[in-house]
Amino acid sequence: MTKTDDLQLEFRRTFASYLEGFLPFEYENKTYRLINSYIASPWRRCDVCGNYPIKYVSVIRSSDGRELHVGNKCLDQMTNREASKWLRRFWTKLDNVTRNRKYIDGLNSLLTAFRNREFEFQITREDAEKLQKTLARMSRGLNPTRKQQQLADLYMKKMLK
Question: Per the count of CB atoms within 10 A, which of 34, 92, 93, 102 is most buried?
Answer without folding.
Answer: 34
